Amino acid sequence: METHLQTAVLITLAFFAITFIQSGYDKIMDWQGNVGWLKSHFANTVIKNSVPAALGLVLVLEILAGAFSVIGMVKIWMGEGTEFAAYAGILSAVTLLILLLGQRLAKDYDGARTIVIYFVPAILLLSWL
User: Fold this and answer.
1) What single string gives the DSSP state of each residue in 58-114?
2) Residue 21 CA to chain centroid, in angstroms?
3) Distance between CA atoms of 89 and 66, rounded to whole angstroms?
4) Average per-residue pLDDT in the chain?
């Protein structure tokens, strides 16, 4: 991988590591607060009775995407390939698609637009790899 492209991949992986590890940490540290807010956010949707399970799924995906991003960075630095970087990109994109679906179900179009901003680097990462 050429140097500039490798730098872009590493920076994007760092972006996802920070984004998803921090978000997962927030969910763990304030689980009840997050569940409470999300129950009201999804009160008029098909997932209104499944908020804790949906939040748990998102939490697992975020932690995995963040961890694979870190592992991907280390593997690239060690010259061991981009396999974990690709896994990180795929998990990041899937996580963001699930979050986008949630925002669309809640008819939170501003929130959905924000998710798209995060989705662009995921697609770039996958195209670079």
Assistant:
1) HHHHHHHHHHHHHHHHHHHHTT--SHHHHHHHHHHHHHHHHHHHHHHHTT-HHHHHH
2) 9
3) 10
4) 97
